[in-house]
Write a structure and sequence with these properties.
This protein is α+β, with helices and mostly antiparallel strands and 549 residues long. It contains 14 helices and twelve strands. The protein has a domain of 370 residues: Beta Polymerase, domain 2 (2-Layer Sandwich). It is found in: Cell membrane; Nucleus outer membrane.
Length: 549
């Protein structure tokens, strides 16, 4: 009981002590006025509202920052993916390029050389020949015998006469030249159709090349397009010739490339030899202020020398000699008192190292190449090796093989067509190149005389294919199958193949004219052959028949 009373008393005492009205001053949580409570509540509410706004602003800024970071990360990720994709395409492109390059190398080493020997390839060609009337074997044989074969004797007599006169003229030229200052002229060589026995159209013109060399102590050092990086792609087949002193290193002394001090001397060259006056190099037929041989200067010198030589020996001959063509500086013509004349070309050339490849200053008559980039660029001619290759292959062919006959007939028909419709981009050199490719591609027994018709068709098919693709490769350049017996320089076999039809890619008008002339020639072939063929009795031939190539 006492405990209960104590607890109740303690509870009452506690309630009295904590009553707010008993100790108002000590209890600060209870304001004296309700207005103060309302005012503080309003202030508290305003404070909470401002705090809420600040927090909302901070949250918005944080969200914006996070969004910007996400966008930046996404952009970086996209760039990385794009870079990966680009790297993948770059790698894929490189792989494709390498595969194409490997295929091209294989193609260069011989695939394109075998085109003429694949019957399947030939079967898909000849679209332009479908329905074209083509003369049969009897008419072709009669045409060749009556129209072409009789010219062989005339060519032999003309070659003999021209060579004898040219030797005499060059001997006189040596006698009028200054041996210590002028170029040294060697013996001439016959090249081209007259010396390969396939020229058919008159007037007959002999092509003679004359190698020459500089006087001592100078020498020629040549650079060709396939052994240096100074020649752009459009100058394939060209080279330059530098006139140097024989005692100079092939790369030249450093004193020619470095400015030595006034108190320094070259131990290899005397002070007199370190520089060569411009006039001295011009006397050596170099381009102005350079050491490079100038083709125009060479032709001017050669024309003057030939004129002096003729003046010395003209009293021995009963004919006149003159230059016949202004655009072909080496074109000469012998005029007899009877009114007859004989034309021939005498062209100076420079030997490439110790081979039978020559730098030629000008091509006579036909433009086998585009215009020279400059007079210091010389085109290379492989005419000597072409003649040797034909002679070498002819030894393996059957008697009276038809390879030369095919070329003669095609050359004759093309010439007659051009006389009717005007010149085209095709030249006799292109036709000979086609024959050289087929000679290498086909077995020797395919050139038997009774297969003249088939081989002529093959040449036309091959030529049609080349015109369609605008690709006719030079026979020697890039051809790894050249017979070793020829001793042909390996550097040209390893070079990039030279496309003789490259001008057709750039000159569309010339290409269209050439193709039109070719098709017109096919349509007119029978008419042209019949026009120049002696009549054949009907019993000896089946006449004209259709050929579907």
């Amino acid at each position: 009981m006492p405990v209960g009373i104590f607890r109740v008393s303690l509870l009452v005492l506690t309630a009295i002590v904590n009553h707010p009205l008993i100790f108002p001053k000590e209890n600060g949580t209870v304001p004296e006025d309700p207005q103060d409570i309302i005012q503080k509540m309003k202030e508290r509410e305003e404070t909470l509202r401002l705090e809420q706004l600040r927090l909302e602003q901070e949250i918005a800024e944080w969200e914006a920052t996070q969004e910007a970071l996400e966008k930046a990360a996404k952009v970086v990720e996209e760039r990385e993916e794009e870079k990966v994709r680009w790297d993948m395409w770059t790698a894929l492109s490189m792989v494709i390029f390498l595969l194409i390059e490997l295929w091209r190398q294989d193609f260069q080493e011989g695939i394109w050389q075998d085109t003429g020997g694949e019957e399947d390839d030939m079967a898909v060609l000849g679209k332009a020949f479908k329905g074209v009337a083509f003369p049969d074997k009897a008419i072709l044989a009669s045409f060749y015998e009556k129209r072409i074969l009789g010219t062989t004797g005339d060519m032999a007599r003309m070659r003999e006469m021209v060579e004898g006169f040219a030797d005499d003229l060059l001997e006189a030229l040596r006698s009028v030249c200054n041996r210590d200052a002028d170029m040294e002229v060697e013996d001439c060589m016959g090249v081209g159709s007259m010396y390969e026995n396939w020229r058919v159209r008159k007037p007959f013109v002999c092509d003679l090349i004359v190698p020459f060399a500089p006087p001592e102590p100078y020498c020629f050092r040549s650079q060709i397009w396939c052994c240096g990086d100074s020649f752009p792609p459009d100058e394939q087949g060209y080279g330059t010739i530098k006139v140097c002193r024989a005692d100079e290193a092939a790369t030249g002394c450093i004193c020619d490339k470095t400015k030595l001090g006034e108190d320094m001397l070259c131990l290899l060259h005397s002070q007199a030899n370190t520089t060569r006056p411009s006039s001295e190099m011009e006397d050596l037929l170099c381009f102005k202020n350079t050491q490079y041989l100038d083709a125009d200067q060479v032709m001017k010198w050669f024309q003057i020398a030939v004129t002096k030589a003729w003046n010395r020996i003209s009293h021995k001959y009963e004919f006149d000699l003159c230059f016949s063509l202004l655009d072909s500086p080496g074109a000469l013509k012998i005029k007899f008192r009877s009114g007859k004349s004989i034309a021939f070309n005498l062209t100076p050339v420079v030997q490439y190292e110790n081979s039978d490849v020559y730098f030629i200053s000008h091509f006579p008559r036909s433009s086998l190449a585009a215009d020279l980039p400059s007079s210091t660029h010389w085109f290379l001619t492989f005419a000597v090796y072409e003649r040797r290759f034909i002679q070498l292959v002819s030894k393996t062919l059957p008697a009276n093989a038809c390879h030369v006959s095919c070329l003669q007939i095609l050359s004759f028909i093309h010439g007659k067509q051009c006389s009717l419709t005007g010149p085209s981009g095709l030249t006799n050199y292109h036709l000979k190149t086609v024959m050289l490719h087929l000679l290498q591609a086909r077995p020797s027994q395919d050139w038997a005389p009774e297969k003249l018709e088939a081989r002529l068709q093959d040449m036309l098919k091959f030529l049609e294919k080349c015109l369609h693709e605008k690709k006719l490769y030079h026979f020697f350049i890039g051809n790894g199958k050249v017979p070793a017996e020829l001793g042909f320089p390996i550097i040209f076999q390893r070079a990039e193949p030279l496309n003789l039809f490259r001008p057709f890619v750039l000159q569309r008008d010339v290409y269209r004219k050439t193709v039109d002339t070719f098709h017109e020639m096919l349509r007119n072939m029978t008419t042209l052959i019949n026009e120049y063929t002696v009549h054949i009795p009907l019993a000896q031939t089946n006449g004209i028949h259709k050929e579907s190539f």
